[in-house]
Amino acid sequence: MKSLYARVVFIFLGAVIVSLFLSLLVITRLFESKAVGYIQDETIKTGQEIIASYIEAYPQHSGVLARGISVTSTNAVNFYGPDGKLRHGDSVTARKLIELDPEAVDAVLAGGVYRSNGFGPHGLVVGLPFEIDGQPYAVFLSPTIGPFMGLILRFFQFELLFSLLFGSILILLAAQYIVKPLKKLNAATRRMSKGDFAFELRSRRQDEIGQLTRSFNSMAKELGTLEQIRQRFVSNVSHEIQSPLTSIKGFTKALRHKKMDEEARMRLLAIIEDETERLSRLGEDLLQLSSLEYEHLKLNTGTYRLDEQLRKAVISLEPQWAPKRLRLELELDEFELYADEDRIYRLWINLLGNAIKFTEPEGTIRLTAVREGEAAVVKVVDSGIGMTEDERGSIFEPFYKADPSRTRAAGGNGIGLSIVKRIVELHRGDIAAESAPGEGTTFTVTLPLSQPPANL
């Protein structure tokens, strides 16, 4: 059975049939036990009344009494004398003749009370002793309960039939209630496999299926967001690659087909070299970002002096800030940091390089590092152009550029701050940006001093 609906229906029907069958067995056992005891007690009372009447009618009218009982009573009544033989046999019809073992007759004549073991092969039988003139007699009674038991049996049969019928209808409805949302989830999965994430499944259920539906909606929304990011990422990468390639191609053709002096030729070669450097930096940054996004990335952690690392980063960037005559102010406390030294160094290079790009000539960049409790707090403050609130909320997204024309002139590709954000996250840290147009920008990085970072 490939259909879940059919599986649910057959399983439920099987469970109902088995449970009804077992219930019928249990009820039959309980009913038989109670019914046998009740019928035997009532039959004994009736037998005692018959014995009293028989003793009074004996001997002249005992035969008449026996025939009257045989005709009028629904019970089969057989009398036995001291010799163990049936008395008044001519008044007992074949239908009301009780089949008895001689041992049962002898036991009752000896003064015992006979009770058959349930509904045996000879029916339900009760035997009672009595005496007349000191001689032992016995009377055996067998109530005619065949029609009654047949009625009870038919009642149970109809009960079983109707229970099965109504149970099957309810099971069909219940199975539809269970399977319907799963069918919707299956259809939604097919839509997702084709790249369609713009949907939402509605469910008011509070059970596990309702929770599954809400989780599925959240997953679809997140996958849709990721798909948009992927498409935007591919578009940005294509654009970043296409622009320098177009420039290189155009200037190469110009060098090949146009006559120009040495100065013009060197200028075009310099542009080609710059565009080639842009492509190289883009490739390096993409590889770096890809490696940081690797799920099982392991950091090469160790303890080192943070202040010395920051000074080293400033010195290595001197070819960028010196030509712009920028003033760098350093306030660095001396303390150690437990982290991946190479990746944290890349973090400072990207942050300081970003500050240098967007700070006007003769501007100021202030770098501070202090210890606050069990955390290192590093701030990079520049006097650059600043950012709006909307721009500040997107600066850590790959390829985002607050001012594309200015970023292109400064040689940026919009990946640097994404790398910074990921490195900080890998070290269980935090980064925040404060900025306003024309008032510069402050990046604040907070890193734990000694807690081992998680491999995210």
From TrEMBL:
Signal peptide: none annotated. Residues 176-228 form the HAMP domain. The keyword Kinase applies. CDD domains: HAMP, HATPase_EvgS-ArcB-TorS-like, HisKA. It is a multi-pass membrane protein. It is an enzyme of class 2 (transferase). Residues 236-451 form the Histidine kinase domain. InterPro entries: HAMP_dom (IPR003660), HATPase_C_sf (IPR036890), HATPase_dom (IPR003594), His_kinase_dom (IPR005467), HisK_dim/P_dom (IPR003661), HisK_dim/P_sf (IPR036097), HssS/ArlS-like (IPR050398), Sig_transdc_His_kin-like_C (IPR004358). The chain crosses the membrane at residues 6-27, 158-179. Member of the two-component regulatory system HssS/HssR involved in intracellular heme homeostasis and tempering of staphylococcal virulence. HssS functions as a heme sensor histidine kinase which is autophosphorylated at a histidine residue and transfers its phosphate group to an aspartate residue of HssR. HssR/HssS activates the expression of hrtAB, an efflux pump, in response to extracellular heme, hemin, hemoglobin or blood. This is Heme sensor protein HssS.
